[in-house]
């Protein structure tokens, strides 16, 4: 992990680290702690008052009855102005503009809160999509020769070895494939960081929440950034009525993207654990 402690004018080494190095870059002391604490209070309030929300790669936690210790707060843009303030930070815009092009989008903005005793996730990648283990559903020849996405983590609590800082396998983004128990996972590191810091990582890099063995919570904001070309040119779906959608063939539904559940309002999902191959529970 490359650590940056002072303001940068040249981002080349950051881009190189994300693409060809460890895949992870940490910027120290970026955010005002008042803003971070404001975001933390809102995240905690939602996490404590809402039903358990959809989470991912948590088959181990689900199988052992501990999934309620791995909480999500989704759709953060609508949950307080502070979330717009944090995500529009200059360093974020500088790095992502260079990596993905200046007209990039946000594809997901949520919080991941690990309570003491939570088990963590199976190692996975977030992009080209988190179900990349269904390899037959992706294009032949897909590789990691260019940046397809970038993930950002903004710690709201101390992300330490004990409290479940996100684990990652340095350099795993370079040879694009979904990790399984057959891969060498011995060089596992963690994205150790504190409130106020800002972490970038390549979405092709294998990673996952670690167990929280501390006696305090570990919450972090998780952001997915995407290049603008992921948007279809024509909105083919809004124009069609329910009758057409209900009565169209499976192939037509596939062509309209109706057989794939994204983009979806995660806040309304009734699933508790979605996605993942569950190799820890097999
Ligand atoms: O909470 C974390 O440490 C990581 C979460 C993550 O990678 C995910 O849900 O895709
Ligand atoms: Fe992830």
Task: Give a concise summary.
The chain is of the alpha+beta class and 282 residues long. It has helices at residues 12-20, 33-49, 59-63, 81-87, 90-100, 242-247, 250-255, and strands spanning 2-4, 24-27, 55-56, 70-73, 105-114, 150-155, 167-168, 189-190, 198-201, 207-208, 218-226, 273-274.
Helices and strands, with pairings:
Elements (H helix, E strand, L loop, with lengths): L1 E3 L7 H9 L3 E4 L5 H17 L5 E2 L2 H5 L6 E4 L7 H7 L2 H11 L4 E10 L35 E6 L11 E2 L20 E2 L7 E4 L5 E2 L9 E9 L15 H6 L2 H6 L17 E2 L8
Parallel strand pairs: 1-2, 3-12
Antiparallel strand pairs: 2-9, 4-5, 5-11, 6-9, 6-11, 7-8, 7-10
Helix pairs in contact: 2-4
How many discrete structural domains?
A: 1
Approximate shape: globular
Helix-and-strand structural type: alpha+beta
CATH architecture: Sandwich
Helix content: 10-25%
How many strands, which pairing sense, and closed or not: the largest β-sheet? 7 strands, mixed
